[in-house]
Amino acid sequence: MASRLTNQATDAVPDLLPGTGRHRTMLFLRRRTTPRTARDFVAATLTEWGETSRLDDMRLCASELVTNAVLHGVPVGRLVLVHVESLDEELRIEVHDSGESTPMQRIPGESAVDGRGLMIVAATADSWGVKERPGPGKCVWAAFNRITELQGAPS
Question: What are phi and psi of 85, to 5 degrees?
Fold first, then answer.
């Protein structure tokens, strides 16, 4: 049965599932406004969880990953899935799309007006990558190590 598209993002999935860290997932339509809406979803989720130490970095990476999915990954009529996860050692953003192309970091020319998204993600996140997913498409993710209170403290 075909799914019906709406003009709104779907409701978020509950934060907690048994035996896991906190996470929240939302589906977004393929639109020009999707990167902003997804960035706001990531920021609102992290703020609600009190995870604001790397909020600006995570917003930036969410925006870049979703922009790439909208421009290069999601076929017309399909959705973008954004997943935010709070684990013991890291915070993680995943962007899933049903496109078949594999994103690759490139070095754009000085006068290029695009092509810097994954370069920005690589410079901002502690790690990032692409992984296969069930069904069509892929998942592009960015991870951010937790900043512990013990780091930088005198011994």
Answer: -135, 135
